[in-house]
Amino acid sequence: MQEKMLVTSQVAKQLGISVATLRKYSSEIEQVTGNHMYFVRNNKQSRMYTPQNVRLLQTVLTLINQKKLPYKEAISQLFEVHASDKMPQVNKVNSSYNMIDAKQVVQLLGMLQKTIEQQNVAISGLKAQMEQLSQQNSQLLIDLNSKKDKEVDPKILAMPDISGVEPINSSESAETIHEEILRKARENQQKHPNITMHRTLADMQLKDKHHWWDPLLKFIQK
C-alpha cells in the first residue's frame, strides 16, 4: 500500500510551525545529506512529505525545543546519529561477505594444492615407468648384440671337429686320409661329449662317387 503524501502546508500545520520554517528545515536537511531530492517533489517541484519525513522533522523540533539547539546543529546531530546507526550494519554486511569470500578462497586453495599433489604423484609414476622401459630397452639391445655375436654360420656348425689332425702327406691314399680324419673326429668327440655335433660319425663314412671330405682334401693338397 502506497504511503500517503502530504504537501508543505499540511505538514507545517501538523508540526505547529510556519510554511517558511518548514521549508528552511527541509532545505537544511537536503544540504546536510547532500541529496537535493531527499524529499519527493510533485510536478510543480514542490516538496511532498511521507509519514517518515514528518517523524524526522518532529525529532528535529524536539532537539530544538528541549535541548535549545540551533536548527542547523539539531539537524546535523540527528543525521550523524542516523549515519552512525547505519554504518555498523553496512560494515557487518561487508565483513560477512569478506568472511564468506575468504572461506571460499581457502577451500579453493586447498583443492588446488590437492590437485597439484595428485598430479605430481602421477608424473613421478610416469617417470618411473619411463625409466623402467628405458632399462628394458637397453637390456634388450645388449641381449640382441650378445646373441648376434654368438651366432655361428650353420655351415661351420655342420662340420665335424677334426682339430689336431696331423699334416697330410699328399702321397697317402684317400682312404688313409679319411681314416685319419675319422679317427681324430672320434677322439675329439670322446674328449668333448657335451658339444653338440651337427654331423655324426656315420655322416663321415665313405660313399660312392662323392665324399663329404673331398673339398677339404682338395684344399689341403693345393
TrEMBL record:
InterPro entries: DNA-bd_dom_put_sf (IPR009061), MerR-type_HTH_dom (IPR000551)
Domain HTH merR-type positions: 9-73
Keyword hit for Coiled coil: yes
Protein known as: HTH merR-type domain-containing protein
Top-level taxon of origin: Bacteria
Pfam families (alphabetical): MerR_1
Keywords: Coiled coil
Any one of the GO BP annotations: regulation of DNA-templated transcription
Coiled coil: 116-150
Molecular-function annotations in GO: DNA binding
